[in-house]
Amino acid sequence: xxxxxxxxxxxxxxxxxxxxxxxxxxxxxxxxxxxxxxxxxxxxxxxxxxxxxxxxxxxxxxxxxxxxxxxxxxxxxxxxxxxxxxxxxxxxxxxxxxxxxxxxxxxxxxxxxxxxxxxxxxxxxxxxxxxxxxxxxxxxxxxxxxxxxxxxxxxxxxxxxxxxxxxxxxxxxxxxxxxxxxxxxxxxxxxxxxxxxxxxxxxxxxxxxxxxxxxxxxxxxxxxxxxxxxxxxxxxxxxxxxxxxxxxxxxxxxxxxxxxxxxxxxxxxxxxxxxxxxxxxxxxxxxxxxxxxxxxxxxxxxxxxxxxxxxxxxxxxxxxxxxxxxxxxxxxxxxxxxxxxxxxxxxxxxxxxxxxxxxxxxxxxxxxxxxxxxxxxxxxxxxxxxxxxxxxxxxxxxxxxxxxxxxxxxxxxxxxxxxxxxxxxxx
Length: 427
Fold this sequence. Notes:
Layout: H1 2-21, E1 25-28, E2 31-33, E3 43-45, E4 48-49, E5 54-56, E6 68-70, E7 80-86, E8 98-104, E9 112-115, E10 128-130, E11 139-144, E12 152-159, H2 167-180, E13 193-198, E14 200-207, E15 210-217, E16 232-236, E17 251-253, E18 261-265, E19 268-275, E20 281-286, E21 306-307, E22 315-316, E23 324-330, H3 337-348, E24 355-361, H4 366-376, E25 381-384, H5 387-392, E26 400-404, E27 410-413, H6 417-424
Helix pairs in contact: 3-6
Protein backbone atom coordinates (compact mmCIF):
# COMPACT_ATOMS: atom_id res chain seq x y z
CA UNK A 1 0.00 0.00 0.00
CA UNK A 2 2.85 2.37 0.76
CA UNK A 3 4.28 1.93 -2.73
CA UNK A 4 0.89 2.41 -4.36
CA UNK A 5 0.41 5.63 -2.39
CA UNK A 6 3.91 6.88 -3.02
CA UNK A 7 3.78 6.69 -6.82
CA UNK A 8 0.75 8.96 -7.34
CA UNK A 9 2.11 11.42 -4.74
CA UNK A 10 5.47 11.59 -6.52
CA UNK A 11 3.73 11.99 -9.87
CA UNK A 12 1.61 14.83 -8.46
CA UNK A 13 4.71 16.52 -7.07
CA UNK A 14 6.37 16.30 -10.46
CA UNK A 15 3.40 17.88 -12.19
CA UNK A 16 3.25 20.74 -9.68
CA UNK A 17 6.99 21.35 -10.00
CA UNK A 18 6.74 21.37 -13.78
CA UNK A 19 3.86 23.83 -13.69
CA UNK A 20 5.84 26.16 -11.44
CA UNK A 21 8.90 25.97 -13.66
CA UNK A 22 6.87 26.82 -16.75
CA UNK A 23 4.74 29.56 -15.19
CA UNK A 24 4.84 32.98 -16.83
CA UNK A 25 7.08 35.53 -15.15
CA UNK A 26 6.12 39.18 -15.63
CA UNK A 27 9.05 41.54 -15.13
CA UNK A 28 8.32 45.27 -14.76
CA UNK A 29 10.96 47.29 -16.63
CA UNK A 30 10.85 50.36 -14.45
CA UNK A 31 14.37 51.69 -14.93
CA UNK A 32 16.20 53.33 -17.77
CA UNK A 33 19.66 51.79 -18.06
CA UNK A 34 22.98 52.68 -19.64
CA UNK A 35 24.11 50.67 -22.61
CA UNK A 36 27.79 50.37 -23.54
CA UNK A 37 27.68 53.48 -25.76
CA UNK A 38 26.32 55.81 -23.09
CA UNK A 39 29.67 57.02 -21.76
CA UNK A 40 31.84 56.11 -24.75
CA UNK A 41 30.24 58.07 -27.55
CA UNK A 42 30.62 61.82 -28.03
CA UNK A 43 27.31 62.81 -29.63
CA UNK A 44 26.94 66.56 -30.02
CA UNK A 45 23.79 68.65 -30.23
CA UNK A 46 25.15 71.13 -32.77
CA UNK A 47 23.59 74.60 -32.65
CA UNK A 48 23.25 77.15 -35.45
CA UNK A 49 22.16 80.79 -35.36
CA UNK A 50 18.50 81.58 -36.02
CA UNK A 51 18.17 84.29 -38.65
CA UNK A 52 14.89 86.16 -38.46
CA UNK A 53 11.97 83.78 -38.10
CA UNK A 54 13.32 80.89 -40.14
CA UNK A 55 15.56 77.90 -39.61
CA UNK A 56 16.89 75.44 -42.14
CA UNK A 57 15.85 71.82 -42.47
CA UNK A 58 18.25 68.94 -42.05
CA UNK A 59 20.05 68.32 -45.33
CA UNK A 60 21.96 65.30 -44.00
CA UNK A 61 25.27 66.77 -45.10
CA UNK A 62 24.11 67.63 -48.60
CA UNK A 63 22.15 64.46 -49.37
CA UNK A 64 18.76 66.22 -49.63
CA UNK A 65 17.55 69.75 -50.54
CA UNK A 66 17.50 72.37 -47.78
CA UNK A 67 14.12 73.88 -46.95
CA UNK A 68 13.44 77.10 -45.05
CA UNK A 69 11.13 76.49 -42.08
CA UNK A 70 9.13 79.37 -40.64
CA UNK A 71 9.04 79.18 -36.85
CA UNK A 72 7.33 81.05 -34.03
CA UNK A 73 9.78 82.09 -31.34
CA UNK A 74 8.89 82.35 -27.66
CA UNK A 75 9.07 85.71 -25.94
CA UNK A 76 11.99 86.67 -23.72
CA UNK A 77 15.39 85.74 -25.19
CA UNK A 78 17.00 88.22 -27.56
CA UNK A 79 19.03 85.68 -29.51
CA UNK A 80 18.23 82.14 -30.60
CA UNK A 81 20.04 79.09 -31.91
CA UNK A 82 18.52 75.91 -33.28
CA UNK A 83 19.47 72.26 -33.60
CA UNK A 84 18.00 68.79 -33.97
CA UNK A 85 17.85 65.72 -31.73
CA UNK A 86 17.81 62.37 -33.51
CA UNK A 87 14.62 60.48 -32.63
CA UNK A 88 13.06 58.19 -35.21
CA UNK A 89 9.74 58.25 -33.35
CA UNK A 90 9.27 61.81 -34.57
CA UNK A 91 7.14 62.75 -37.57
CA UNK A 92 7.23 66.01 -39.50
CA UNK A 93 7.40 67.08 -43.11
CA UNK A 94 10.82 68.72 -42.89
CA UNK A 95 13.04 66.64 -40.62
CA UNK A 96 11.71 63.06 -40.42
CA UNK A 97 13.36 61.21 -37.58
CA UNK A 98 14.47 64.37 -35.78
CA UNK A 99 13.00 66.71 -33.19
CA UNK A 100 13.83 70.39 -33.63
CA UNK A 101 14.96 72.42 -30.64
CA UNK A 102 15.44 76.12 -30.03
CA UNK A 103 17.95 77.58 -27.56
CA UNK A 104 17.36 81.07 -26.21
CA UNK A 105 20.38 83.19 -25.27
CA UNK A 106 22.84 80.49 -26.37
CA UNK A 107 25.91 82.39 -25.13
CA UNK A 108 24.58 82.83 -21.58
CA UNK A 109 25.67 80.72 -18.63
CA UNK A 110 22.29 78.91 -18.54
CA UNK A 111 20.48 79.17 -21.87
CA UNK A 112 16.82 78.20 -22.24
CA UNK A 113 15.93 75.10 -24.28
CA UNK A 114 12.61 74.73 -26.11
CA UNK A 115 11.71 71.33 -27.59
CA UNK A 116 9.14 71.15 -30.37
CA UNK A 117 7.40 68.08 -28.96
CA UNK A 118 4.26 68.56 -31.09
CA UNK A 119 6.29 69.16 -34.27
CA UNK A 120 4.40 72.32 -35.32
CA UNK A 121 7.49 74.58 -35.25
CA UNK A 122 5.70 76.91 -32.85
CA UNK A 123 8.15 77.04 -29.94
CA UNK A 124 5.94 79.36 -27.91
CA UNK A 125 3.63 76.47 -26.96
CA UNK A 126 6.39 74.10 -25.84
CA UNK A 127 7.92 73.32 -22.47
CA UNK A 128 11.11 75.23 -21.62
CA UNK A 129 14.15 73.87 -19.78
CA UNK A 130 17.22 75.47 -18.27
CA UNK A 131 20.42 74.16 -19.79
CA UNK A 132 23.36 73.47 -17.46
CA UNK A 133 26.75 75.13 -17.23
CA UNK A 134 29.94 73.02 -17.35
CA UNK A 135 29.96 71.61 -13.81
CA UNK A 136 26.21 71.55 -13.29
CA UNK A 137 23.99 68.51 -13.34
CA UNK A 138 22.94 67.45 -16.89
CA UNK A 139 19.46 68.31 -18.07
CA UNK A 140 17.24 65.22 -18.27
CA UNK A 141 14.34 65.11 -20.73
CA UNK A 142 12.17 62.57 -22.52
CA UNK A 143 11.09 62.28 -26.14
CA UNK A 144 7.93 60.33 -26.89
CA UNK A 145 6.78 58.43 -29.97
CA UNK A 146 4.29 60.31 -32.15
CA UNK A 147 1.99 57.27 -32.42
CA UNK A 148 2.43 55.91 -28.90
CA UNK A 149 2.87 58.59 -26.27
CA UNK A 150 3.87 55.95 -23.69
CA UNK A 151 6.90 55.00 -25.79
CA UNK A 152 9.83 57.15 -24.70
CA UNK A 153 13.59 57.49 -24.52
CA UNK A 154 15.49 59.72 -22.12
CA UNK A 155 18.28 62.11 -23.07
CA UNK A 156 20.82 63.86 -20.88
CA UNK A 157 22.28 67.16 -22.11
CA UNK A 158 25.47 68.54 -20.61
CA UNK A 159 27.60 71.47 -21.70
CA UNK A 160 30.25 70.26 -24.16
CA UNK A 161 33.63 70.48 -22.55
CA UNK A 162 36.33 71.99 -24.79
CA UNK A 163 38.72 69.11 -24.00
CA UNK A 164 41.19 71.00 -21.88
CA UNK A 165 40.72 74.10 -24.00
CA UNK A 166 42.74 72.50 -26.81
CA UNK A 167 42.66 75.03 -29.58
CA UNK A 168 43.35 72.48 -32.33
CA UNK A 169 40.38 70.32 -31.42
CA UNK A 170 37.93 73.25 -31.19
CA UNK A 171 39.21 74.53 -34.51
CA UNK A 172 38.72 71.12 -36.12
CA UNK A 173 35.11 70.86 -34.90
CA UNK A 174 34.30 74.41 -35.99
CA UNK A 175 35.75 73.71 -39.43
CA UNK A 176 33.83 70.42 -39.70
CA UNK A 177 30.43 72.00 -39.02
CA UNK A 178 31.20 74.91 -41.33
CA UNK A 179 32.04 72.44 -44.10
CA UNK A 180 29.16 70.00 -43.45
CA UNK A 181 26.50 72.71 -43.05
CA UNK A 182 27.39 75.60 -45.37
CA UNK A 183 25.19 78.67 -45.23
CA UNK A 184 24.63 78.36 -41.46
CA UNK A 185 26.45 80.04 -38.64
CA UNK A 186 27.73 77.42 -36.19
CA UNK A 187 27.57 78.78 -32.64
CA UNK A 188 30.90 77.25 -31.60
CA UNK A 189 31.74 73.86 -30.17
CA UNK A 190 32.02 75.09 -26.56
CA UNK A 191 28.47 76.47 -26.75
CA UNK A 192 26.96 73.15 -27.82
CA UNK A 193 25.81 70.22 -25.69
CA UNK A 194 26.68 66.57 -25.33
CA UNK A 195 23.87 64.04 -25.76
CA UNK A 196 23.79 60.85 -23.70
CA UNK A 197 20.91 58.55 -24.49
CA UNK A 198 18.98 56.12 -22.34
CA UNK A 199 17.50 53.75 -24.91
CA UNK A 200 17.26 50.67 -22.68
CA UNK A 201 14.82 49.71 -19.94
CA UNK A 202 15.56 46.99 -17.38
CA UNK A 203 14.13 44.98 -14.53
CA UNK A 204 15.14 42.05 -12.32
CA UNK A 205 14.21 38.40 -12.80
CA UNK A 206 14.10 36.72 -9.39
CA UNK A 207 13.19 33.06 -8.89
CA UNK A 208 14.32 31.22 -5.79
CA UNK A 209 18.05 30.73 -6.58
CA UNK A 210 17.83 32.43 -9.98
CA UNK A 211 18.34 36.16 -10.55
CA UNK A 212 19.53 38.28 -13.44
CA UNK A 213 18.82 41.58 -15.16
CA UNK A 214 16.62 41.57 -18.24
CA UNK A 215 16.10 44.54 -20.50
CA UNK A 216 14.94 45.88 -23.83
CA UNK A 217 17.05 48.03 -26.15
CA UNK A 218 15.37 50.50 -28.48
CA UNK A 219 18.00 50.04 -31.19
CA UNK A 220 16.42 52.48 -33.67
CA UNK A 221 15.60 55.10 -31.00
CA UNK A 222 11.90 55.52 -31.78
CA UNK A 223 10.56 55.06 -28.24
CA UNK A 224 9.24 51.57 -29.03
CA UNK A 225 11.09 48.55 -27.68
CA UNK A 226 9.80 45.52 -29.60
CA UNK A 227 10.45 46.26 -33.28
CA UNK A 228 10.97 42.98 -35.13
CA UNK A 229 14.49 42.31 -36.41
CA UNK A 230 15.72 45.62 -34.92
CA UNK A 231 15.31 45.91 -31.15
CA UNK A 232 17.06 43.64 -28.68
CA UNK A 233 16.25 41.59 -25.60
CA UNK A 234 19.16 41.94 -23.18
CA UNK A 235 20.10 39.61 -20.32
CA UNK A 236 23.06 40.26 -18.06
CA UNK A 237 24.14 39.37 -14.54
CA UNK A 238 22.55 41.33 -11.71
CA UNK A 239 25.92 42.80 -10.74
CA UNK A 240 26.56 44.24 -14.22
CA UNK A 241 26.08 48.02 -14.20
CA UNK A 242 26.30 48.59 -17.95
CA UNK A 243 24.42 46.70 -20.66
CA UNK A 244 26.80 45.53 -23.37
CA UNK A 245 24.43 45.54 -26.34
CA UNK A 246 27.26 44.76 -28.77
CA UNK A 247 28.10 41.36 -27.28
CA UNK A 248 25.90 38.55 -28.71
CA UNK A 249 26.36 36.65 -25.44
CA UNK A 250 24.16 39.31 -23.83
CA UNK A 251 21.29 39.73 -26.27
CA UNK A 252 19.01 38.34 -28.95
CA UNK A 253 17.37 40.42 -31.66
CA UNK A 254 13.59 40.22 -31.90
CA UNK A 255 12.55 37.62 -34.46
CA UNK A 256 10.43 38.27 -37.49
CA UNK A 257 6.84 39.16 -36.66
CA UNK A 258 4.92 36.04 -35.68
CA UNK A 259 7.97 33.96 -34.78
CA UNK A 260 8.71 33.12 -31.12
CA UNK A 261 11.65 34.66 -29.31
CA UNK A 262 13.97 32.64 -27.07
CA UNK A 263 17.10 33.33 -25.07
CA UNK A 264 19.44 31.42 -22.77
CA UNK A 265 20.58 32.55 -19.37
CA UNK A 266 22.43 30.58 -16.69
CA UNK A 267 22.02 27.37 -18.68
CA UNK A 268 18.24 27.73 -18.89
CA UNK A 269 16.09 28.37 -21.93
CA UNK A 270 13.43 31.07 -21.77
CA UNK A 271 10.66 31.94 -24.18
CA UNK A 272 9.43 35.50 -24.48
CA UNK A 273 5.66 35.50 -24.12
CA UNK A 274 4.81 39.20 -24.36
CA UNK A 275 6.62 42.52 -24.59
CA UNK A 276 5.02 45.89 -24.01
CA UNK A 277 5.71 48.14 -27.01
CA UNK A 278 6.53 51.04 -24.69
CA UNK A 279 9.01 48.87 -22.80
CA UNK A 280 7.08 48.88 -19.53
CA UNK A 281 7.21 45.11 -18.98
CA UNK A 282 8.25 41.77 -20.46
CA UNK A 283 6.71 38.34 -19.83
CA UNK A 284 8.87 35.22 -20.06
CA UNK A 285 8.75 31.57 -19.06
CA UNK A 286 11.16 28.67 -18.90
CA UNK A 287 10.91 26.44 -21.94
CA UNK A 288 11.74 22.88 -22.92
CA UNK A 289 11.50 23.61 -26.65
CA UNK A 290 14.32 22.46 -28.91
CA UNK A 291 16.20 25.59 -29.95
CA UNK A 292 19.72 25.06 -31.26
CA UNK A 293 20.96 28.70 -31.30
CA UNK A 294 23.42 27.74 -34.05
CA UNK A 295 25.01 25.09 -31.89
CA UNK A 296 27.16 22.44 -33.47
CA UNK A 297 25.30 19.16 -33.83
CA UNK A 298 26.22 16.31 -31.52
CA UNK A 299 28.83 14.16 -33.25
CA UNK A 300 29.94 16.94 -35.60
CA UNK A 301 33.42 18.44 -35.41
CA UNK A 302 34.06 21.83 -33.87
CA UNK A 303 36.00 24.30 -36.06
CA UNK A 304 39.79 24.52 -35.83
CA UNK A 305 39.65 27.62 -33.64
CA UNK A 306 42.72 29.37 -32.28
CA UNK A 307 42.96 29.95 -28.53
CA UNK A 308 45.01 32.70 -26.89
CA UNK A 309 46.10 31.83 -23.35
CA UNK A 310 46.72 34.25 -20.51
CA UNK A 311 50.36 33.20 -20.62
CA UNK A 312 52.30 31.64 -23.46
CA UNK A 313 51.72 31.23 -27.19
CA UNK A 314 48.43 30.82 -28.98
CA UNK A 315 47.43 27.27 -29.94
CA UNK A 316 44.72 25.55 -31.92
CA UNK A 317 41.98 23.44 -30.38
CA UNK A 318 42.93 20.88 -33.01
CA UNK A 319 46.19 20.25 -31.10
CA UNK A 320 44.08 18.46 -28.44
CA UNK A 321 42.25 16.24 -30.93
CA UNK A 322 43.57 13.06 -29.29
CA UNK A 323 42.02 14.09 -25.96
CA UNK A 324 38.58 14.76 -24.64
CA UNK A 325 38.10 18.43 -23.80
CA UNK A 326 35.76 20.09 -21.32
CA UNK A 327 35.34 23.79 -22.11
CA UNK A 328 33.88 26.28 -19.64
CA UNK A 329 32.75 29.70 -20.90
CA UNK A 330 32.24 32.41 -18.29
CA UNK A 331 33.10 35.76 -16.81
CA UNK A 332 33.80 36.86 -13.26
CA UNK A 333 30.24 38.06 -12.68
CA UNK A 334 28.65 34.87 -14.04
CA UNK A 335 26.50 32.74 -11.78
CA UNK A 336 28.56 30.37 -9.57
CA UNK A 337 31.82 31.56 -11.16
CA UNK A 338 33.92 31.09 -8.00
CA UNK A 339 32.64 27.58 -7.23
CA UNK A 340 32.75 26.60 -10.92
CA UNK A 341 36.42 27.50 -11.27
CA UNK A 342 37.22 25.51 -8.13
CA UNK A 343 35.49 22.52 -9.73
CA UNK A 344 37.46 23.05 -12.93
CA UNK A 345 40.61 22.31 -10.94
CA UNK A 346 39.10 19.00 -9.85
CA UNK A 347 38.00 18.11 -13.38
CA UNK A 348 41.52 18.81 -14.64
CA UNK A 349 42.77 16.14 -12.21
CA UNK A 350 40.20 13.46 -13.09
CA UNK A 351 42.17 11.95 -15.96
CA UNK A 352 44.97 14.33 -17.05
CA UNK A 353 46.27 12.05 -19.81
CA UNK A 354 42.91 11.73 -21.55
CA UNK A 355 40.88 14.76 -20.48
CA UNK A 356 41.85 18.42 -20.78
CA UNK A 357 40.02 21.44 -19.37
CA UNK A 358 39.80 24.89 -20.93
CA UNK A 359 38.36 27.94 -19.20
CA UNK A 360 37.34 30.59 -21.73
CA UNK A 361 37.15 33.79 -19.70
CA UNK A 362 35.50 36.93 -21.06
CA UNK A 363 37.04 40.11 -19.66
CA UNK A 364 36.77 43.82 -20.44
CA UNK A 365 40.53 44.41 -20.35
CA UNK A 366 43.27 41.94 -21.30
CA UNK A 367 45.17 42.55 -18.09
CA UNK A 368 42.19 41.21 -16.10
CA UNK A 369 42.88 37.74 -17.51
CA UNK A 370 46.53 37.96 -16.57
CA UNK A 371 45.61 39.05 -13.04
CA UNK A 372 43.19 36.14 -12.65
CA UNK A 373 45.83 33.76 -13.98
CA UNK A 374 48.34 35.08 -11.45
CA UNK A 375 45.90 34.89 -8.53
CA UNK A 376 44.27 31.55 -9.35
CA UNK A 377 47.32 29.70 -10.75
CA UNK A 378 45.00 27.34 -12.64
CA UNK A 379 45.93 23.77 -13.55
CA UNK A 380 43.79 24.07 -16.70
CA UNK A 381 44.09 26.14 -19.87
CA UNK A 382 42.95 29.74 -19.29
CA UNK A 383 42.20 31.57 -22.55
CA UNK A 384 40.68 34.83 -23.75
CA UNK A 385 37.00 34.85 -24.62
CA UNK A 386 36.13 36.60 -27.88
CA UNK A 387 32.97 37.16 -29.91
CA UNK A 388 34.46 35.19 -32.80
CA UNK A 389 35.21 32.21 -30.56
CA UNK A 390 31.74 32.10 -29.02
CA UNK A 391 30.10 32.42 -32.44
CA UNK A 392 32.13 29.58 -33.98
CA UNK A 393 31.50 27.26 -31.04
CA UNK A 394 27.77 27.97 -30.76
CA UNK A 395 27.93 29.74 -27.40
CA UNK A 396 25.09 32.22 -26.82
CA UNK A 397 25.19 33.03 -23.11
CA UNK A 398 27.37 32.86 -20.02
CA UNK A 399 28.06 30.64 -18.22
CA UNK A 400 27.98 27.82 -20.79
CA UNK A 401 29.72 24.47 -21.16
CA UNK A 402 30.88 22.34 -24.09
CA UNK A 403 32.12 18.75 -23.89
CA UNK A 404 34.21 17.70 -26.88
CA UNK A 405 35.34 14.13 -27.56
CA UNK A 406 38.33 12.91 -29.48
CA UNK A 407 38.81 14.23 -33.02
CA UNK A 408 36.99 17.44 -31.97
CA UNK A 409 33.53 15.85 -32.09
CA UNK A 410 30.85 17.47 -29.94
CA UNK A 411 29.54 15.22 -27.17
CA UNK A 412 27.29 17.64 -25.24
CA UNK A 413 26.41 21.22 -24.41
CA UNK A 414 25.16 22.49 -21.08
CA UNK A 415 26.79 20.11 -18.59
CA UNK A 416 27.93 22.28 -15.68
CA UNK A 417 31.12 21.42 -13.75
CA UNK A 418 29.26 19.82 -10.85
CA UNK A 419 27.24 17.55 -13.16
CA UNK A 420 30.34 16.71 -15.17
CA UNK A 421 32.26 15.49 -12.11
CA UNK A 422 29.34 13.41 -10.85
CA UNK A 423 28.81 11.72 -14.21
CA UNK A 424 32.31 11.38 -15.64
CA UNK A 425 33.01 7.91 -14.33
CA UNK A 426 29.47 6.70 -15.02
CA UNK A 427 29.87 6.88 -18.80
